[in-house]
């Protein structure tokens, strides 16, 4: 369009019926917006589009509670952010008065339908609908157009420790990885292993099953140092003792008194701590 990208831009195009143009600074984001993360690359692409063609879809707003002449965004915060980056002075809006529950539900539906929420944002949005607004899982499923089992499985992610949630939030592990770890005795440690080893979801599920079932007793080998089931039980017990003492995943194999000890760590801090223990005294 030839405009200077550094100068504020105003659109002279007439607004469709029911749409009005307002100063961009008169809009405020919804503090309960379920979407917390806006990818910079996506914003840059939308900014370029708006700079070229303007805002094609009006932003849905309601009157900001307690403030005259101010509008709270119901749907369209990404368009508003990109319009700011494009240095527009006005944006088109459609006003639709809703209560807090309706606003939150519309925001969730818009984001879920567009797959804009990461799994944890989606889970947190469902939790808020249930705890703050008294919705059941069936009601939430009806609002967002998902199955009840999808809602239930998504909510279960919030049971996981923060370290696992960090991996999912940062895109280092998927929701599938995380779900596989929910019923394991140490999800954080297994998440470290899944990330460091680059495990697939299927491999992580297998890892989780082994963690839940516990180490399988080694088969008795003729000529072993102790022989029979007693020797196997000692190996298993020693493996568990080492794992408990180190706080790490330990695998111990023994064949006729010779074998291999494998210790897995998930972070450099864990490796440093292990080295200090091994070199102490």
Low-confidence stretches: 1-14, 218-231
Strands ordered across the widest β-sheet: 1-5-3-4-2
Instruction: Report the CATH architecture of the domain at 13-115.
Output: Alpha-Beta Complex
Instruction: Summarize the main sheet.
Output: 5 strands, mixed
Report the β-strand fraction as a percent range: 5-15%
Q: How do the helices and strands follow one another from N- to C-terminus? A: EEHEEHEHHHHHHHHHEEH
What is the fold's blueprint, element by element?
Elements: E1 20-23, E2 27-28, H1 40-53, E3 59-63, E4 71-75, H2 77-85, E5 90-95, H3 100-113, H4 119-131, H5 137-144, H6 148-156, H7 162-169, H8 175-181, H9 187-196, H10 201-213, H11 228-246, E6 249-255, E7 258-264, H12 268-279
Parallel strand pairs: 2-4, 3-5
Antiparallel strand pairs: 1-5, 3-4, 6-7
Helix pairs in contact: 1-2, 4-6, 5-6, 7-9, 8-10, 9-10
Describe it for me?
The protein is an alpha/beta fold. Among the domains are: 13-115, Conserved hypothetical protein from pyrococcus furiosus pfu- 392566-001, ParB domain; 219-281, no CATH class. It is built from twelve helices and seven strands. The protein has helices spanning 40-53, 77-85, 100-113, 119-131, 137-144, 148-156, 162-169, 175-181, 187-196, 201-213, 228-246, 268-279, and strands at 20-23, 27-28, 59-63, 71-75, 90-95, 249-255, 258-264. The protein has a five-stranded mixed β-sheet with strand order 1-5-3-4-2. Strands 6-7 form a two-stranded antiparallel ribbon. Strand 6 (249-255) and strand 7 form a beta hairpin. The longest helix is centred in the last third of the chain and has 19 residues, at 228-246. The protein is elongated and about 85 Å long.
């Amino acid at each position: 369009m030839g405009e200077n990208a550094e100068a504020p831009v105003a659109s002279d195009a007439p607004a469709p019926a029911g749409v009005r143009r307002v100063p961009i600074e008169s809009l405020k984001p919804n503090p309960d917006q379920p979407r917390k993360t806006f990818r910079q690359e996506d914003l840059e692409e939308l900014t370029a589009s708006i700079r070229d063609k303007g805002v094609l879809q009006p932003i849905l707003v309601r009157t900001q509670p307690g403030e005259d002449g101010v509008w709270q965004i119901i749907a369209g915060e990404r368009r508003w952010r990109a319009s700011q980056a494009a240095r527009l002075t006005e944006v088109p809006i459609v006003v639709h008065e809703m209560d807090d529950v309706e606003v939150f539900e519309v925001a969730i539906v818009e984001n879920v339908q567009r797959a804009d929420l990461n799994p944890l944002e989606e889970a947190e949005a469902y939790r808020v609908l249930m705890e703050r607004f008294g919705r059941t899982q069936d009601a939430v499923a009806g609002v967002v157009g998902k199955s009840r089992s999808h809602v239930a499985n998504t909510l279960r992610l919030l049971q996981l420790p923060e370290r696992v949630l960090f991996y999912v939030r940062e895109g280092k592990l998927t929701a599938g990885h995380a779900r596989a770890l929910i019923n394991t005795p140490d999800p954080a440690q297994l998440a470290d292993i899944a990330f460091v080893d680059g495990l697939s979801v299927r491999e992580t599920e297998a890892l989780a099953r082994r963690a839940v079932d516990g180490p399988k007793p080694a088969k008795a080998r003729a000529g072993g140092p102790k022989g029979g089931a007693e020797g196997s039980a000692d190996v298993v017990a020693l493996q568990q003792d080492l794992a408990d003492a180190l706080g790490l995943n330990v695998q111990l194999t023994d064949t006729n008194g010779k074998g291999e000890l494998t210790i897995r760590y998930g972070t450099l801090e864990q490796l440093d701590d292990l080295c200090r223990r091994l070199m102490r005294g």
